[in-house]
Amino acid sequence: MAEDIQKKIAFRLTRASLGIALMLGILVAFIQIAMDLRNEFKQIDNNAREIFLVVQNSAQRAVHLLDSRLATEVVKGLNNYRFLTYAAIKDDNNQIMAEYEIASDNYTSSTQWFTQLLTDRIAEYEFPLVNDDNVQEGSLVLNINSDRGLAPFYNRAITIFVSGLLRNMGMAIVLILIFHYMLTRPLTTISARLASIRPDQTEGRRVMHLSRHQNDELGNIVNSANVFISAIENWQGELSQREQQLRLILDASPNQIFAIDGNGEFIFVNNMTERFYRCSGEKLIGKSYIHLHKSINPEEAKSLNFCLKRLPKMKQGSFSVEQKLTDANDETHTMQISFIAFNMHGKNCILVVCVDITERVKAEERVEYLAFFDTLTGLPNRNMLYEYLKKDISRARRLNLYGALMFIDLDDFKRINDSMGHSAGDQLLIQLAKEIESNKRESDTLARLGGDEFVLCMPELHKDLDVAKQLAVDLAERLLANIRKPISIGNSEFIISASIGIILYPLEGDDLETLLSFADTAMYKAKQLGRNCYKVFEDSMADEAQSLLALESELRIAIKQKQFEVKLQPILDAKTGDLVSAEALIRWNHPEKGTVSPNDFISFLEQSGMVVDVDYFVLDRVCQFIKQQKAQGLFPKNLRISVNLSANTLHQHVFVSNVQAILNSHDIKGTSIEFEITERAALQRLNEVIDKARVLQLQGITFSLDDFGTGYSSLSYLKRLPVNKIKIDKSFIKDCVHDPQDDALVSSIIAIAKRLKLGVVAEGVETQEQVEWLNAHGSVYYQGYLGDRPLSLDKFHSKYLLPYKSMTLSS
Ligand code: C2E
Ligand code: CA
Ligand code: CA
């Protein structure tokens, strides 16, 4: 308290004023007294001189006359001078003639000690006594008590000192009062008024001016304070606006953002955090983060706690983790959580930001899934299969065990896909995948390579190759039987078969690609063997596959270098033997192998899609030939040359326009052309083929159904297909004369064709007997070695067209 008072300006002012007044009083009094003292000393000297002057004549006379009595009278007469302590008159021999010791000599006073500080206690004077002739005849000795002499001075000095001090003190007190009323009190009031305004609650409040102090310095202080307050007010307004903005940003964030203090309790939370914990911010603040999360999921809380403890050890003051967090709705999210240390009011706090990356993680997993799994069946895809196989092969090597790889390809799946639509096809694939899965061992891996191709990987079958092979074969047989079980999709039932290629591994120096291609080769062989069967890979197949590869590149060259030749085989009227039409058949003039039969390369061309170019080439060559013959007038009006179409060509979108373009380029009408299509090709996309055929038929082109009897030979399709002719396959013609079954079949085909008003061509007629049999069953045309083998264009020209001209000329 005393200390507080000491700090107050009023107190300090009083202290300073009084101090200064005191000091000044003392100083001024001291100077006055000092000056007075000097005068007083002079006065003492003067007094001594005055005494001397008073007694000079008498003393002179006493020494001149050597009159001791007079001398004694003189000195005694000095008795009245109270400050004298001693007086004596000396003769010229310096002998004392008379002396007088004054009793006051033992005078003591309270100022004695001070006088002693200033001067000697006794001031001694000796005045010469000089006669008229200016000869010294003696001397007067006077001793003065300094203290006595200074007594008046002392009296004055006390007065001066006390009065000066009192005056100064009085002035100081007056000044203090003036200061108090004019400065200290107003200042105290101003500070009290200023203190009554809290900086965080200014709300338009200002410091009031003191009356009569508006325009002076105190008024200025109040003005400045008010300017300052309104600056604070503005600044606070801005601050709260900024805080609101910040809050808005925090609350708009899709991420959880919150801060916790050193005790792990929430300091602030954003909207997302409130939603996550389904708890208002007010309730959250002050709650322990870890405890709160513990109530939802203790395991997660444990690892969060671990993170919070880890943070202080991190040099960079922050780190991120990916963690699963469950919210108050019991929904689990994958979170990217960042912990950032910060300091607030000198305390260590942690800012936590949780970004929900659930969707991203899911998408990543999905991408990863897509890279390794087939989306339709959920089976591993080629990539995954390779991964499995790699491991299995090296394991098999290590353990000296044999495994097997099965290449499963559905037969005629394309037909179902095309006729029933893709979604039915997909359903079928899914069900078949399940079927195969249910037959395999648990350790086996079934993968889908795409389309209707599946691969079954059977690791560690047996250490004995033959036993392993038998196990694989057993499974293949079981699979074939089960795949053929009817499958119902919607209201329809499907029966589908598969062809399976099997290869056993490990082989000498095999890699994955080779292994798969060998299994594929074996599967292809199974297809060639009539489908719905399996084939175990044999080394000879590798050579075959090798030669197929070689064939592919050779065929590419053949197409580029036009190594193909078109031959024409006549089709004759069985009754008259007249030329009705001719079939264009392709030949490959191989530079080394000579002429290659289409049977050796057409199916390969079909697989690789190259057959399209070949078909158009044949059509083009045929049109060119017709044009040449027509130009010479050698081409009979009703003669047609038939061109074989593979399914690939027929199914091309641009097929019709391509045909028209080729015909137009040679200026040939459709009436000279016939297309041979197989049932299989037509049924693959029935409606599309019907539409295309109709368009071309309008231009005069006719269609014949090739190899009739080998396909489905469904009558209902036959009715819908806009064909003009059917060509009975040579396999039936071959034995129709002797084989009652073929006899019945061919004769009924001829009868049906007749009913449907379709022309009939018997293929592969080699004997006269066959012609006679045919004639006995109706009016048909025939094609075969009996008539002629396929002839070169020149040969055909000279043998069939030239005579025709001479015939028309002669007739
Ligand atoms: P295809 O359409 O059935 O042609 C008839 C096949 O029977 C021809 O074989 C022909 O030489 C053969 N042939 C004719 N008469 C007799 C006979 O009395 N006895 C026997 N055993 N065979 C006879 P080629 O020329 O070897 O053609 C085979 C197949 O190749 C053709 O069967 C056809 O499907 C296809 N082909 C031929 N040329 C082409 C073409 O330009 N394009 C397409 N896409 N396929 C063609
Ligand atoms: Ca044909
Ligand atoms: Ca044929």
What do you see in this structure?
- The longest helix is centred in the first third of the chain and has 57 residues, at 9-65.
- This protein starts with a helix and ends with a helix.
- With 811 residues, the protein is an alpha+beta fold.
- The model has no long low-confidence stretch (mean pLDDT 89).
Largest sheet: 8 strands, mixed, barrel
Contiguous low-pLDDT stretches (5 residues minimum) are none
What's the total number of strands?
26
Distinct bound molecules: ligand C2E, calcium ion
Shape: rod-shaped
Can you count the helices? 28
* Rg, Cα atoms, Å: 70 Å
Class from helix and strand fractions: alpha+beta
Strand content: 15-25%
If strands are numbered along the chain, what order do they take across the biggest sheet?
A: 17-18-20-21-22-23-24-25
Kindly report the average pLDDT value: 89
Helix share of residues? 40-55%
Distance from first to last alpha carbon: 154 Å
Short synopsis of the structure:
With 811 residues, the chain is an alpha+beta fold. 53% of the residues lie in helices and 21% in strands.
Outline the secondary-structure elements.
Layout: H1 2-7, H2 9-65, H3 68-77, E1 84-91, E2 96-101, H4 112-118, E3 122-130, E4 136-145, H5 146-195, H6 217-252, E5 256-260, E6 266-269, H7 271-277, H8 281-284, H9 289-294, H10 298-310, E7 318-326, E8 332-344, E9 347-356, H11 358-372, H12 382-399, E10 402-410, H13 413-420, H14 422-439, E11 445-450, E12 453-462, H15 465-483, E13 487-489, E14 492-494, E15 498-505, H16 512-528, E16 534-536, H17 539-561, E17 564-573, E18 579-590, E19 594-596, H18 602-608, H19 611-631, E20 640-644, H20 647-650, H21 655-666, E21 673-678, H22 679-684, H23 686-698, E22 702-708, H24 715-720, E23 725-728, H25 730-733, H26 740-755, E24 759-763, H27 768-777, E25 781-783, E26 791-792, H28 793-810
Parallel strand pairs: 15-16, 18-20, 20-21, 21-22, 22-23, 23-24, 24-25
Antiparallel strand pairs: 1-2, 1-4, 3-4, 5-6, 5-9, 7-8, 8-9, 10-12, 10-15, 11-12, 13-14, 17-18, 17-25, 17-26, 18-19
Helix pairs in contact: 2-3, 2-5, 13-14, 14-15, 16-17, 19-21
One calcium ion binds next to loops.
